[in-house]
Write a structure and sequence with these properties.
The complex is a heterodimer of chains A (about 140) and B (about 70). By secondary structure, chain A is α+β, with helices and mostly antiparallel strands. Helices cover about 30% and strands about 15% of the residues of chain A. Chain A has helices spanning about 5-25, 110-130; strands spanning about 35-40, 40-50, 55-60, 70-75. Chain B is α+β, with helices and mostly antiparallel strands and about 70 residues long. The chains are: A alpha+beta (about 140), B alpha+beta (about 70). The interface of A and B includes residues 94, 106, 113 and 120 of A.
């Protein structure tokens, strides 16, 4: 069953996610807006972020069981190998096993826009890491 | 990509904003048109939004890097 076939996911998309994405896009220049495309049973959000002087292309995937299962985000722009970067340039954004609430994905509190903004923060850390070779903020507990 | 690094002052400002945010002391603001970092601000939930939109997620999104 795909994300659009799942009544719970579909209600969430229409009631929460798409309005949040529209709000996110409302002030952005066209090249920085998020586009939404169904692919297989998932939804892909494609967008660009520019935390400093460099522009990064990204894709955030909402899986068929979203929002119970957290979205995943990959950077399509080639990065240097660095901390918190997983296979195929997937960003390590949350620590699902953490006992600290703010280190886990919480479907009741967060949206796909939050995932995009978490990716922004990751890229901001990366921009500093490239020069200083030290990840600028502490590890999750 | 030809990586263009920040200068030392830009890096210092961004570093302070990221660490202040990780410590729960401040939010991070970006240019609403291009998503570029513009500064940091108060964590007050009701702070007015000006030309530079406060990124709500940077106040409340789960953090892999929590302090």
């Amino acid at each position: 069953m795909g994300i659009l076939d799942n009544p719970v996911s579909k209600e969430r998309l229409l009631g929460v996610e798409l309005p949040a994405l529209q709000a996110y896009n409302s002030q952005r220049d066209p090249e920085y807006r998020v586009s939404v495309e169904p692919k297989g049973g998932e939804l892909q959000l494609r967008y660009r972020l520019k935390p400093a002087h460099n522009v990064y292309e990204l894709v955030t995937v909402l899986p068929d069981s979203y929002p119970v299962i957290a979205p995943t985000t990959r950077v399509l722009t080639k990065l240097e190998s660095c901390p918190h970067l997983l296979y195929q340039q997937t960003l390590c954004l949350w620590k699902q096993a953490s006992r600290v609430a703010d280190s886990r994905w919480d479907p009741a509190r967060f949206t796909a826009v939050f995932a995009i903004q978490a990716a922004w923060r990751w890229l901001a850390c990366y921009e500093i890491w490239v020069v200083e070779k030290t990840w600028p903020i502490p590890e999750a507990r | 990509m030809d990586f263009r690094p920040m200068d030392s002052e830009e890096r210092r400002r961004l570093l302070e904003a990221l660490r202040g945010n990780a410590a729960g002391a401040s939010s991070i603001a970006m240019d609403p048109r291009t998503t570029t970092f513009t500064g940091s601000g108060s964590m007050d939930a009701d702070a007015p939004r000006g030309e530079n939109q406060v990124i709500d997620a940077i106040k409340s999104v789960p953090v892999h890097y929590a302090g």
